């Protein structure tokens, strides 16, 4: 229960009974649950709340589940679990082909859906609510603290999210646009040089004067290298 509280779920279905059933059940499991009744509102909600998991019906008004799934995967890290009709094998195959992580057949068991959610979270978001050690970094997501080489860093909330993202995606070049979208949100209206300001601050706190930990990859973004 303690771990689930910070995990955001979005349930998308045009049947009010299913939405109410899943919202109540998943909230009772400790998740933060948001709902949407159609494709367009699902994408709006996803941009606003940045869910970790989306439970997505295939047959939706406005925009079908396949189009929504494709758009969700372009937004960033998110688990998509499709709800499909019992005999729609082609739908399941198509969904997996376009990036869905799993599927559950209607009518479904709540316990099975819950097990699939937890299984996918363990694979894609293993750090949620837990302490994770990656090289010289120790991330305590429950306490929102990061330790580097045994030293607790004094980080603001934004610095924490930025450094955590870079550490979890270490050895990967991350663009400035991707950092803005993930840390500041899709509707951030400020200047994009805010990323440079925060990177400079992180380097100071890491005592990374020679930029050996957080490297600037000219024209591409930033890459965190593990010493």
Automatic annotation (TrEMBL):
Q: Which residues carry this modification: 4-aspartylphosphate?
A: 57
Under the heading InterPro entries, the entry gives: CheY-like_superfamily (IPR011006), OmpR/PhoB-type_DNA-bd (IPR001867), Sig_transdc_resp-reg_receiver (IPR001789), WalR-like (IPR039420), WH-like_DNA-bd_sf (IPR036388)
Q: Give the GO cellular component terms, alphabetically.
A: cytosol; protein-DNA complex
- OmpR/PhoB-type domain sequence ranges: 129-226
Q: Domain named Response regulatory: which ranges?
A: 8-121
Report the superkingdom from the record.
Bacteria
The reply to whether Transcription figures as a keyword in the UniProt entry is yes
Q: Which residues does UniProt assign to DNA binding?
A: 129-226
Q: Which UniProt keywords apply?
A: DNA-binding, Phosphoprotein, Transcription, Transcription regulation, Two-component regulatory system
User: Signal peptide position in this chain?
Assistant: none
Q: What is this protein called?
A: Two-component system, OmpR family, response regulator
Q: What GO biological process, any one, is recorded here?
A: regulation of DNA-templated transcription
One Pfam annotation reads Trans_reg_C
């Amino acid at each position: 229960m303690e771990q689930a509280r910070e995990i955001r779920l979005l349930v998308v279905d045009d049947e009010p009974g299913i939405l109410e059933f899943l919202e109540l059940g998943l909230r009772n499991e400790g998740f933060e649950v948001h709902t949407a009744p159609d494709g367009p509102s699902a994408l709006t909600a996803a941009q606003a709340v940045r869910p970790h998991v989306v439970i997505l019906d295939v047959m939706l008004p406005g925009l079908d589940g396949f189009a929504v799934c494709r758009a969700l995967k372009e937004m960033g890290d998110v688990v998509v679990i499709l709800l499909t009709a019992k005999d729609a094998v082609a739908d399941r195959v198509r969904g997996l082909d376009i990036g869905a992580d799993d599927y559950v057949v209607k009518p479904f068991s709540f316990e099975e859906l819950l097990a699939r959610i937890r299984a996918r979270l363990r694979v894609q978001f293993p750090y949620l609510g837990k302490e994770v050690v990656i090289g010289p970094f120790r991330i305590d997501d429950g306490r929102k603290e990061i330790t580097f080489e045994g030293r607790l860093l004094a980080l603001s909330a934004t610095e924490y999210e930025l450094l955590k993202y870079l550490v979890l995606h270490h050895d990967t070049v991350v663009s400035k646009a991707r950092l803005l979208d993930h840390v500041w949100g899709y509707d951030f209206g400020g200047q994009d040089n805010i990323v440079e300001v925060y990177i400079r601050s992180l380097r100071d706190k890491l005592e990374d004067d020679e930029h050996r930990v957080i490297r600037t990859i000219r024209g591409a973004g930033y890459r965190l290298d593990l010493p």
